[in-house]
Write the structure tokens for this entry.
Amino acid sequence: MKVVFFGPPGSGKGTQAIKFAQRFRNPHLSTGDILRKAIEEGTETGLKAKSLMDAGQLIPDSDIVAIVRDRISQSDCQSGFILDGFPRTLEQAHDLERFLKGHSEELDYVFEFKVPTELLIERITGRFSCKKCGAAYHPTMNPTKVADVCDRCGSSDFMKREDDTLDTVKGRIAVYEGQAQPLLSYYSRLGVCASIDAVGSVEEVFNRVIKSIEK
Ligand code: AP5
């Protein structure tokens, strides 16, 4: 399956994309995770991306499309991939479509996650993530099953993201709102867009995603 998880920061697209990728055995490709890894490794891409990410701004389309094209060309993506955080602009969406068309392929679904802004802020400012596998948790809204142990990989090494401060989160939400509508119109025209109410427990939201496919 070739799927896009789309939504504002904190809407839970990363959490759901990981579950979806496990269920359907397709690789989970988070552009945010790829960029954070590049920063940690001190690569040229990482150095260029850091200040933009810290400020909650998007990195240039040309840089991110090159990264995604390279990743989805790899052999583990031949039978599908779960994109989380890409595309974010119309230019990125057009580039993805060109790439897929060139391989006689197309997207199967774009899941649009909807969550009120106050809840987005609460989710993000409380978020902590597993340093090893990237799974995201929240102390009250989505805690680990066992205290201080990642449900997904068993690690006890957690981190807070540097771009999760209140000011940056507000900026990231504004950036999302500035880009979302044209992208959603584009995917609606292609007939692949499914809107998901993403308020509720992680399991409830996941069930809605699965139901939207069954429909
Ligand atoms: P990225 O890492 O993609 O961040 P984001 O889009 O801002 O999204 P988040 O990861 O903050 O939120 P999420 O929706 O995945 O929520 P999560 O599941 O973690 O991008 C970071 C930066 O990289 C960008 O600002 C940009 O600079 C750059 N970048 C990345 N892609 C780019 C691109 N294509 N083009 C240009 N630049 C790009 O959940 C959030 C919290 O809520 C967690 O604590 C979680 O445990 C909790 N939670 C999740 N679901 C539920 C639920 N149902 N109930 C209760 N709590 C929940």
